[in-house]
Amino acid sequence: MIFQPAIIALLLASAICVLALAASAPFAVELVRRWDINSGSERQLRLERRTYLFSTLLVFIMTAQLASVLLFVFNAEKMSGMFVGAMCAVGTLNVNPWGFPALNAKIAVFFLAAMWLAINHVDSRARDYPLVRIKYALLLLLAPLLAASAWTEAQFFLNLKADVITSCCGSLFSEGSTTLAAEASAMEPLPAMLLFYGAMGLAIGSASYQWAFGKGGYATATAAALGFAAGISGILAFISLYIYEHPHHHCPFCVLKPEYGYQGYALYIPLFLATAAGLATGAIRPFAGIASLKTVVAETSRRLAAVASIGFLLTTAVATAMILRSNLILLEH
Amino acid sequence: MKQWIEKQRYLIDFTLASLARRKTRNLGLLGVYTLLVFVLASVALYTHALRVEAAKVLAASPEVILQRLVAGRHDLIPPGYLEKVGRIRGVQKREGRLWGYYYDAVVKANYTFMVPNDGTMAVKRGEIIVGPALERSRGLAAGNGISFRSYSGKLHTFIVEAVLPQASELVSADLVLMHEEDFRAFFDYPAGHYTDIALSVANPQEVRNVALKLAAALPDSRPILRDEVLRTYASIFDWREGIVLALLSAAILAFGILAWEKASGLSADEKREIGILKAIGWETGDVIKMKFWEGLLISLTAFLVGFVAAYVHVFYFAAELFEPVLKGWAVLYPRFQLTPHVDGLQVATLFFFTVFPYAAAVLVPIWKAAITDPDAVMRG
What we know:
The complex is a heterodimer.
Chain A: H1 5-34, H2 42-79, H3 89-93, H4 99-125, H5 132-158, H6 169-172, H7 180-186, H8 189-213, H9 217-244, H10 263-284, H11 294-325
Helix pairs in contact in A: 1-2, 1-5, 2-4, 4-5, 4-10, 7-9, 8-9, 8-11, 9-10, 9-11, 10-11
Chain B: H1 2-21, H2 23-58, E1 64-70, E2 73-75, H3 81-85, E3 91-97, E4 99-104, E5 109-114, E6 127-130, H4 132-138, E7 145-149, E8 155-163, H5 169-172, E9 175-178, H6 180-187, E10 196-201, H7 207-217, E11 221-225, H8 226-264, H9 268-279, H10 284-316, H11 323-327, H12 344-370, H13 374-379
Parallel strand pairs in B: 5-9, 6-8
Antiparallel strand pairs in B: 1-2, 1-10, 1-11, 3-10, 4-5, 6-9, 7-8
Helix pairs in contact in B: 1-10, 2-8, 2-10, 2-12, 8-12, 10-12
């Protein structure tokens, strides 16, 4: 199975990213130990020059990570035709125990990368690079995570065996099983809707408040995390039902299929972007007190909050439109 | 926001002018890049079109084919076997099929002899309907007579009643349709025997259950599912594509090295340019941004041109360059026109394959260029 073009591309991207990170780790260590902006020594000059290289490199890696999540899911979806029992991406991810961990790791790296990129952006706009140390220390923490994500992904692809009979989304996201996903699926439509619209309202509200008044970075981040969880459980519990017009089909991946007009992408892309932006506001919030960052952080957070606010609004609007257009009736009027 | 866009616009403007100043060098890189995208995209588009074609061909075939095995080999269906299958819920139609292969020593190729089952293709005794490849290789036309020497040594003569249409060539290239009695006489086929049994199942989700029931009721049989055939085709084409891509990865690597070389071998002119830019107030970050735009412009142009060229190559010139590797071959190979089909995943994969290595390769050289000290350059 390793000779699937998309798999080769994904593994290639992961390998390049891990290699690049491994190459930058020694530099990060040196920088954390020796960085001194006030010194005019040869070494400091060299370090300053190198930060340009490594910042660019990391922007490149993180962007690649963001793109590869999309390709990963897209590919899992496409490959479902090759496994007996698979109807959508769930089947492919279930072929071996590495599938879902790989996806979850990728999503985690996606959000962490977004937060790191926000910190990097803020830092590079200040005259005295106040966050350089923190940035590279965080990078050293992020590196093993990224390597682990690449490793699970490789394990997943290497262990894909076409003769395994996998289970389809119907059994994983059914109301009877005991997983977290099943719990969310089993929620009654009315409380699930209240939770979804409540959390979305909160997320939109706090992000808009910050956009307008520039206050409340942590609140936005918390609300964004909440909004993400509520968004996913909302999709599991009732939005998917409305899309499929079927009262028991809870799959969050089938919505990405061409049969349903790729509607899922319209739902997931704004949700992920909004969550990433919301979390990023929280990530740069602790540095608002630093003198050279005051205006930069305020400005950047407002911009990120705007993205989060619009993204959550879009997700809610798209979900509502899908519900209104559907012929399924879950709630009696 | 507007200010940011304006800034990027000026940067792009400047980059384009700077690219135009070194035409030959950049055109060389662009040419190689385009060629790489062209090769990779041709492979991807061609295999995908073949996959789509295979799926379309199989869409009309029966859901389940039942073969009887003797000592693990395919054997004839004896009389009464069809009745033993019995009524299985969900099966709409079951019928015995008659077909076989005939080796024609004249053109050194195998034909498929078949008795049509549906009424629309009824063939009279002594007549045959032939596929387009046969028409070409034996120079046949409607009304001609042709003789085949059967495996028993007797010569049988048939009149060609019609030639099958070109549109169905992918499935019918080597096909010869004949009457049941002619078929049995030609092959000395025992009366009441069939080659295999075709079952049509209405509900696709029932196919597997039907196959299980068949296997339980007739332990000496082998049900072959259409889905499995499709899956096998898909994996074979994917695998072929993957192998070609893996072989071409050497080319990608070579291209990466070339890009690295091109990007790091800054001419004295370029060095002076960057030095002057920095002397008049550009920052290292700005130079990196300019170089980033340069890379992006080259990448996107190469990608677009290469992809369009590949599209034309595959769908208008039948992918002449890669056909032998990807399509396979046969004496009576069908001629067919591929249906244009572009797949989103493929474009994304291709983008990863080409733009990503390029970006990785030019990163370090770009940085090296960007950190040049203005005084060092201008003095030297």
